[in-house]
């Protein structure tokens, strides 16, 4: 119930709204139960008049009818007002929790995003926020709080009128809860297992759909379909068990509610026969008992829905509770305009304690120079760049920009002076112009077009119907690899960074696209401090400095000609590539 406690804590922050909702609910409940009392008075007057063979004035009936009409309208009016205020309150809370979780998700460190399935996390946030809505509005607000007010009012009035009748209405309630709650728990466990299996089924289904060409190339259609059948059947098995428990709970709740109703009819009828109660009071008892027990028919359903919604909300709070590994210190200040250089001083880093990825890295990168990082896969090149970006922080050592420790400056001011063009440029399912302007949202159309021209992207953009307003599709699927790269370069040019990071992006392109991207890259690197993660040595032969990485260390540093003569690892990489 930790999630329920968290939800209530969030709810109680708006104490004035809660008090106002309770007041509206009390008014609606009070007017709701007024109608049977008016009917009771009318019935008693009619019975008395009939027994005395008197004629009751029509005005009495009309006044009673108007009274019932008035209290019914008032009850619905306050109930509608309550429902609207509840809806606005709950949706605002739902949205706030959703945005908090989404912001936390975006702020979490790179390792977290590598380890989780992004679609699954977004789904948890969405379902968790919807779960909070269900709990507060549909379950607590509508089907627990309102009926509870009515039951308490009915019990209070009946205890004052006749304690025995009040007890007859109240006693079955705890019996009902004691019977239904354990069953609801079993239903929840079965549905939770079914939900987990269906979630796994959907994840597998999306995975297969994303790799459908591979499935077809290897003729695995039948195998994948059979696997889906097995996974679906496993989820259905738990779902069928849950449904059996549903039916048992429906029978039990019908039995308890019917016993309570029969008891009220028998005892109320006895009291009427013996003269302890009037006919009108007998009708009143039966009517109030029906009003009190009507919500019970949904309690078993509500308990199961409550537990399911709590499980979803719990996953939302797990995202909210995830601690960011990289945070600004309370004394963090904005980084001044980068001018002099970057320095790594004895920097070490490990993702896990048993193996260091970078060990005692010390290097100076002067401003305005191009530095290339080379080495085998896993040697530490990408980690070096991620530490500079503060995607995560080193366990020891310092990273300085113009002598300022990156741990002491704000992450925004650090990254505002950087731009990265990765090997696979990430594009949003937005327009071409919006993708180019992503690093500078206030850019004018003219600035966007100028950046595209420098990136040799303007011509192909203008050939697309709608030009800069054309949608690029999910992850830029409507563009070729070379076109996506040039959009990424245009985005970096428009951002006008002091420090540029290039994850060499031409190795998978055709010759013409590679030539265009290289020409665009030349415009981008002019006058900037550039760090290139090199996959092909032919592209960095003219770098001002080359850093050779091996097993987390820098084992060589210098220009191409120097390293070719003095560094065995670099010369071996060079020979292997050029022999190919």
User: What name is given to the CATH topology of the largest domain?
Assistant: ABC transporter transmembrane region fold
Given the helix and strand composition, which structural class is it? alpha/beta
Give the termini distance in whole angstroms.
Answer: 62 Å
Contiguous low-pLDDT stretches (5 residues minimum) are none
The first-level CATH class of the largest domain is given as: Mainly Alpha
Report the total helices: 20
Portion in strands: 5-15%
The CATH architecture of the largest domain is Up-down Bundle
Summarize the main sheet.
6 strands, mixed
Task: Spell out the blueprint of helices and strands.
Blueprint (H helix, E strand, L loop, with lengths): L1 H10 L3 H37 L6 H50 L2 H6 L2 H44 L1 H8 L1 H39 L1 H6 L3 H53 L5 H15 L5 H23 L19 E9 L8 E9 L3 E6 L5 H8 L7 E6 L2 E2 L5 H5 L2 E4 L10 H5 L8 H10 L3 H6 L17 H15 L3 E5 L7 H15 L3 E5 L11 E6 L2 E6 L1 H7 L1 H12 L1
Parallel strand pairs: 3-8, 3-9, 6-7, 7-8
Antiparallel strand pairs: 1-2, 1-4, 4-5, 9-10
Helix pairs in contact: 1-11, 2-3, 2-5, 2-10, 3-5, 3-11, 5-6, 5-10, 5-11, 7-9, 7-11, 9-10, 15-17, 17-18, 19-20
């Amino acid at each position: 119930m930790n999630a329920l406690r968290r939800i209530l804590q969030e709810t109680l922050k708006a104490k004035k709204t809660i008090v106002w909702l309770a007041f509206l609910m009390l008014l609606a409940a009070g007017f709701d139960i007024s109608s049977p009392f008016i009917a009771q008075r009318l019935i008693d007057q009619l019975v008395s008049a009939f027994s005395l063979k008197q004629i009751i004035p029509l005005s009495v009936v009309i006044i009673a009818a108007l009274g019932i009409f008035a209290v019914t309208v008032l009850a619905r009016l306050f109930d509608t007002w309550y429902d609207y205020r509840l809806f606005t309150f709950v949706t605002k809370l739902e949205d706030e929790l959703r945005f908090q979780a989404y912001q936390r998700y975006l702020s979490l460190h790179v390792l977290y995003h590598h380890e989780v399935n992004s679609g699954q996390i977004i789904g948890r946030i969405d379902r968790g926020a919807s779960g909070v809505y269900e709990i507060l509005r549909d379950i607590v607000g509508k089907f627990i709080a309102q009926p509870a007010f009515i039951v308490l009012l009915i019990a209070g009035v009946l205890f004052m009128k006749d304690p025995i009748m009040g007890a007859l209405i109240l006693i079955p309630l705890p019996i009902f809860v004691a019977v239904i709650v354990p069953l609801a728990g079993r239903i929840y466990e079965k549905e939770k297992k079914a939900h987990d299996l269906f979630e796994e089924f959907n994840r597998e289904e999306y995975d297969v759909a994303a790799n459908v060409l591979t499935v077809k190339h290897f003729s695995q259609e039948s195998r994948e379909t059979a696997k889906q059948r097995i996974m679906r059947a496993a989820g259905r098995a738990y779902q069928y068990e849950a449904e059996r428990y549903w039916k048992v709970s429906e029978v039990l709740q019908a039995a308890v509610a019917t016993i309570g109703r029969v008891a009220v009819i028998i005892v109320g009828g006895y009291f009427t026969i013996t003269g302890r109660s009037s006919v009108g009071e007998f009708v009143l008892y039966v009517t109030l008992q029906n009003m009190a027990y009507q919500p019970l028919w949904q309690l078993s359903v509500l308990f199961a829905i409550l537990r399911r919604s709590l499980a979803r909300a719990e996953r939302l709070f797990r995202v909210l509770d995830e601690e960011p590994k990289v945070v600004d210190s309370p004394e963090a200040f904005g980084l001044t305009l980068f001018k002099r250089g970057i320095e790594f001083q004895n920097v070490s880093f490990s993702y896990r304690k048993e193996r260091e990825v970078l060990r005692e890295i010390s290097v100076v990168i002067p401003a305005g120079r191009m530095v290339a990082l080379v080495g085998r896969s896993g040697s530490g090149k990408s980690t070096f760049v991620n530490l500079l970006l503060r995607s995560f922080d080193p366990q020891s050592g310092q990273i300085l920009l113009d002598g300022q420790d990156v741990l002491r400056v704000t992450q925004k001011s650090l990254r505002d002076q950087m731009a990265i063009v990765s090997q696979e440029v990430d594009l949003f399912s937005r327009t071409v112009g919006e993708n180019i302007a992503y690093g500078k949202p206030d850019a004018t159309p003219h600035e966007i077009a100028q950046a595209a021209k420098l990136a040799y992207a303007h011509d192909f953009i203008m050939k697309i119907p709608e030009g800069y307003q054309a949608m690029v599709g999910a992850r830029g699927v409507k563009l070729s690899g070379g076109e996506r790269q040039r959009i990424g370069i245009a985005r970096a040019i428009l951002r006008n960074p002091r420090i540029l990071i290039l994850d060499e992006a031409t190795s998978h392109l055709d010759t013409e696209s590679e030539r265009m991207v290289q020409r665009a890259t030349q415009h981008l690197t002019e006058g900037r401090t550039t760090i290139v993660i090199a996959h092909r040595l032919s592209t960095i032969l003219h770098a001002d400095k080359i850093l050779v990485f091996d097993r987390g260390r820098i084992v060589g540093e210098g220009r191409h000609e120097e390293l070719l003569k003095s560094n065995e690892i670099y010369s071996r990489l060079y020979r292997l590539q050029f022999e190919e």
